[in-house]
Each structure stands twice: as C-alpha cells, then as structure tokens.
Amino acid sequence: MAVQVGLGRSNFVPISVASLCPCSRARPFLKPLEFPSASTKLNIRLTRMVSDDMYGIPVTILTRHRTVMAVARAEPDRLDEGEAKEEVDEGSSLLEKEEIHIEEQHKASQLKNRVIFGFVIGISVGGIILAGGWVFTIGVAAAVFIAAKEYFGLVRSDGIAVGMTPPPRYVSRVCSVICALLPIWTLYAGHIDISVTSAAFIVATALLLQRGNPRFAQLSSAVFGLFYCGYLPCFWVKLRCGLSLPALNTNIGYSWPVLLGGPTHWTVGLVATLLSISSIIAADTFAFLGGKAFGRTPLINISPKKTWEGAFVGLAGCVATSVILSKILCWPKSLPSAVALGFLNFFGSLFGDLTESMIKRDAGVKDSGSLIPGHGGILDRVDSYIFTGALAYSFVKTFLPLSGV
C-alpha cells in the first residue's frame, strides 16, 4: 500500500523542521523557509494505490498520515484552520474505509479458500471411505499422526505450558508415532485394548525414568494425547472395516460396481460410516447457518461463537439427515434407530468440537495449525469426528442387534 500526496495550486516549499518537532531548537544546518504568501492554498489529496498487503494497513500509511496532520498544523496562522481540519478528517476517513475494505477482502479470500479446499477434502475423503481396507486405515493413520503433532504442539504452547510442565519433545514425538500406528494395528489385529494399554505403559515408564523431576502434568497430558488422538479414532477403523456383513437391503448393494469390490463390498460398516459422516457434516453446517441467522444466546464460554439457537438447528439437521439416508439406504430399518443414531452423532460432534475449543483456548491460539488454507489444522477439521466414531460403533455393535436390526 502506498499513499500519493499531491500538492496542487501551490509552490513546493520546504517547511521548518522546528514546526514539526516539539523541541525548541532546530538543527543548525537546516534553514527554515516560510510560505511566499498567506493566500497560498495547500491542497492535499490522498490517492489510494494498489495494496500489496491484504491483511492490514502498512506502517507507511500511518507515518505519512501523521506527516499530513503535522503539515496541516505546522503554520496555523497562515493556513485556514477549517480547511486543514477538513483535509485531516478526510484522510482519517479514507484510512478507516481502507481498513474495512481490506478486512472484507481478507474474509472473502478465507471463505473462498474454505469452500475450495473443503470441496477437495470432501471428494478425497469420500474416495477413501469407499475404498475401505488398508486405504481407509492408512488415511486415518496419516490424519491421526498430524493431529497428534498439533495436539502436543498445543500442549507445549505458552498458554498451557505456563501453568504446567509439558512432556519432553521426544515423548511427544513417540506418542505421535504410536497414535499413527494404533489404527494400523486395529485393522491387523481386530482389537485395540491391549495396544493402547501397552503404549500408555511405555510412555509412563519413559516419563518416570527421565532426568530431573517427573511431573504428573507430563503423564496426564501424554496419556490423554494417546487416548484423544490415538485410541478414539481407531473406532472409525472398527466401524468401517470391522463390520463386514453385506448390507444388501437396497438395489445399491446388488448393483455395486465390481471395480469398487462388488456387492460384497457394500457392507454394514460402509453404510454406517457414510451415514455417520454425512450426519456430522449436516450437524456442523446447519449449526453454522442457524447460528448466523438466529444465534442470540451463547452456548458456552469456551466457544463464544456457538449459540443455543445454532445448536438446535444443527441437531435438527443432523437427525433429519440420518433419517433421510436411512430411508434411502434402508439401514437402519427402524425409524427410532435412525433418530437415535442422529442424536448420538450430533452430541458426539458437539462434544469433540468443544473439547478442542477448550484446549485451544488454554493454549491461546485460534487454530491448531495452518496446514489447510481457510480451515486451520487437521485437528480443527476432525475434532467433530473424534468421539463420534466410538459412539457410532458402540451403537451399531451393541444396541442395533437388540432392536432386531
């Protein structure tokens, strides 16, 4: 951003440095000159140029703006005070408008990036879900590894580390690797309980045997990281890959392309995963739109932008999506089961979102990272899915058989 100062209908004359400086002396080698006549007008125009910085007003504008104000006040007895004040007010108004314009450009750019990258991510995730098996598991492991790194980065941030002792860096890195290996082990072994217990034991032993004084805060934050970033996401692998019973209740199952695995690939796990993820996306989308349109009452202090009105709209959208997809996919068969699954997905997504908001609030950051333009970090995108996988799997595995589905 640059400012062009035009001097019209006036002669170019130097101005006394003494008049611009509050001190009583001027430097001896600077000779002050006066205006040639009192009737000469100083016509100052601020012309807007192309901005190179879309995130804020450069220091140059503010500096030159102060210079303009100093020039206007330099010779009060020779310059009409009304005109000087008018020119200064015009410059201030221009700066305010420029700030608003730049902020609007920044928000528009963020929204554009959010939509573009959200669409790309949606297509990629959809393909990974349909592929299933090792493709799905490796995708989950990669997301878990990045999310774990972001989590331990938040734990080591100034906002949290001031009130506690974070785990050493080597423990954080080991925990991130363990979290990434847990989904792979879940697919290979079919269970996860023993692996999580063993990982927690290894991390606890490493912390207890470290040099210096081991702290409980180190142990608690590391073990919670294993649970939050490693154990819970593994239920998505159990849901998608573990429930391999074919779901041949619709024509979609019988006509499923051979390229994608044939009818036997259309399983209960695939249908449950598609339904759960779709309802979570609907919950987030409807909650955002409802909060924008009707939001008045704050939901909770740790996330000031969330409102009760947005939460109710999100719940309605989540349940409606679950019911509609259950009718299309003919799974689950009963309406109460579809409604119950919608409720579980909504509250699981809301709880995961608020949990990450609490961590970020203590860390004093807005986003967990900057990997995805317009979205923040991986943890910002998957926070709604962390708890819902465990809830959806437990519901399908435990409660649906009891209702005859």
TrEMBL record:
One of the GO BP terms on file: phosphatidylglycerol biosynthetic process
Keyword Lipid metabolism: yes
Pfam families: CTP_transf_1
Transmembrane segments: 115-148, 188-209, 216-239, 266-289, 310-329, 335-352
Predominant location category: membrane
Bilayer topology annotation: Multi-pass membrane protein
InterPro entries from the UniProt entry: PC_trans
Catalysed transformations (reactions): a 1,2-diacyl-sn-glycero-3-phosphate + CTP + H(+) = a CDP-1,2-diacyl-sn-glycerol + diphosphate
Keywords: Lipid biosynthesis, Lipid metabolism, Membrane, Nucleotidyltransferase, Phospholipid biosynthesis, Phospholipid metabolism, Transferase, Transmembrane, Transmembrane helix
Subcellular location: Membrane
GO molecular function: phosphatidate cytidylyltransferase activity
One term under GO cellular component: chloroplast thylakoid membrane
Keyword Transferase: yes
Family from the record: Belongs to the CDS family.
Protein name, UniProt field: Phosphatidate cytidylyltransferase
Species this protein is from: Spinacia oleracea (Spinach)
Gene that produces this protein: LOC110793682
